[in-house]
Design goal:
Layout: H1 6-14, E1 19-22, E2 29-33, E3 36-40, H2 45-57, E4 60-64, H3 70-73, E5 78-81, E6 88-93, H4 97-116, H5 127-147, E7 153-157, H6 164-171, E8 176-180, H7 188-191, H8 197-204, E9 209-212, H9 215-228, E10 233-235, E11 240-243, E12 246-252, H10 259-266, H11 271-278, E13 285-290, H12 299-312, E14 320-325, H13 334-354, E15 362-365, H14 371-380, E16 383-386, H15 395-403, E17 410-414, H16 420-423, E18 428-430, H17 435-447, H18 450-461
Parallel strand pairs: 1-4, 1-7, 4-6, 7-8, 8-9, 9-12, 13-14, 13-16, 14-15, 16-17, 17-18
Antiparallel strand pairs: 2-3, 5-6, 10-11, 11-12
Length: about 475
């Protein structure tokens, strides 16, 4: 793949400015383990992608300090990282249990997350949650003002900070503010469900530059501004909005991965044999799904398609295994707890219905695998099933393609994932809501002639 690492793109735009990154998740956490303070790197593609940028720029990263020893090792909330070779400052913001309940689990993940993914049924735009979201955004804004100056480049990450840019703009009128909104942006009729729509747009339009993954989200955002803020002037051709005396540029930029590093990890020898034996998939045709447990990822829909596949193609039984890798998330939210139960039940049903004493149709790997094992799994899986019901990008699709150093895997990709804009031509495209066609797509992907598999994957890897 020819994806440029995020670091190169950001570094080109910095010039002489100091970089200040703002994210909910921190890149390093300090926790107590048997009385000793240890350092860990929380899972997440966003933090992994930005950390190399920070190490090269020696800037400041502002984030929630969620480790139980974070503030023991920090001086006034600040600590130099990475621990083994400190090169930038991590400035931690402390959040209370109420903050987490209402700002994070409440407004961020029960209002904005489902709303932006076009899923109305779990949306809860509680006014008390929004007020706490506003308060936490103000607190992060104050941290930005304290850690930067008018010459800094402030880079907000994602939907947790829809209001923070306005708070910073009020205190630092000349600062350069940018924001990457990593999840989709909904169509105007969906966004209209949100009672705080005008406040969110006001906050985001305090940025000089607002970035989404794909052009569709840019178009949706501009349409929402035009329908909600009568005082804003929207130029759809140039992708700009004039509002409150300033101009915001809205652009799309598909987030990439470090393809060279991924290929290198996938090329390591000796990992796959042990991994395949451990999970009982040695000699099997393997389809792989790698997801955090979330209702946007289409995991129940995928399992339904696997079940239908075994119904329709009984000759595949015993020789084909679907591997589901991922971990639970946001289990404090009722809809996620219900999803966990639904997935558990579905996997048990399929394994009970079709499994034998020597073969399991679905193998579940709940733990987070070490990188070398994950990329070995990517490389040696015959198919990757990415069935997102809606997704800003989906880096799993890109990681799978980059790991296919032998050019013989097939990506089965939802048309509703942002990655489809780049990788759709070489993928077997699915609508995850159509169980029958999804099952047929799995069989079609498995039945592709070797030459066609190679051509499809080689074309994707050149992008």
């Amino acid at each position: 793949m020819t994806d440029r690492p995020l670091s190169e793109t950001v570094l080109e735009g910095l010039a002489e400015r100091d970089l200040v990154v703002v994210s909910n998740r921190q890149p390093y956490a300090h926790n107590r383990d048997d009385g000793e303070i240890t350092v860990s790197r929380p899972a997440g593609g966003l933090t992994a992608g930005i950390d190399p940028v920070m190490q090269r720029t020696e800037g400041t990263w502002i984030a929630w300090g969620d480790g139980d020893a974070d503030f023991e090792v920090a001086e006034e909330g600040r600590v130099r990282v990475p621990p083994d070779d400190p090169s930038y400052t991590l400035s931690r913001v402390e959040l209370s249990e109420t903050d987490l309940e209402r700002y994070y689990y409440g407004y961020s993940n029960q209002a904005l997350w489902p709303l932006c993914h076009g899923m109305i049924y779990p949306v809860r735009c509680d006014g008390r949650d929004f007020e706490r979201y506003r308060a936490v955004n103000r607190r992060f804004g104050e941290a930005v003002v304290e850690e930067s100056d008018e010459g800094s480049l402030i880079w907000f990450q994602d939907y947790h900070f829809g209001l923070a840019p306005r708070f910073v703009r009020q205190e630092m009128p000349e600062a350069l503010l940018t924001q990457f909104w990593h999840i989709p942006w909904p169509a105007p009729k969906t966004f209209a469900v949100c009672p705080q729509a005008d406040a969110l747009l006001d906050g985001l339009l305090a940025n000089d530059l607002l970035v989404f993954h794909v052009a569709e989200y840019v178009e949706n955002f501009l349409e929402c501004v035009a329908s909600v803020l009568s005082e804003a002037t929207v130029d759809r051709e140039d992708g700009t909005v004039e509002y409150d005396g300033s101009t915001t540029t809205i652009q799309s930029f598909p987030l990439g991965i470090d393809a060279e590093r991924t290929e290198s990890l996938a090329s390591e020898s000796g990992v796959w044999t042990d991994l395949a034996e451990r999970y009982g998939i040695d000699g099997q045709t393997v389809a792989l799904g790698v997801d955090r447990l979330d209702y946007t990822k289409g995991i129940p829909e995928r399992i339904d398609a696997i079940e239908r596949f075994f119904e329709e193609y009984p000759g595949r039984r015993g020789e084909f295994t679907y591997v589901q890798n991922g971990s639970a998330s946001r289990s404090e939210i009722e809809s996620y707890e219900y999803l966990q139960q639904r997935v558990d039940t579905a996997i048990e049903r399929v394994n009970r219905r079709f499994g034998t004493a020597t073969w399991k149709p679905i193998v579940r790997i709940d733990e987070m695998l070490p990188e070398e094992e994950l990329y070995a799994l990517y490389r040696h899986s015959d198919l990757a099933l990415v069935s997102a019901l809606r997704d800003g990008m989906n880096l799993v699709a890109k990681e799978y393609v980059a790991s296919q150093v032998d050019d013989d895997g097939v990506l089965v990709l939802s048309e509703f994932a942002g990655a489809h804009e780049e990788l759709g031509d070489g993928a077997v495209t699915i609508n995850p809501f159509d169980t029958q066609s999804f099952a047929e797509a799995i069989d079609r992907a498995l039945s592709l002639p070797t030459e066609e598999r190679n051509e499809r994957m080689a074309a994707q890897r050149r992008r």
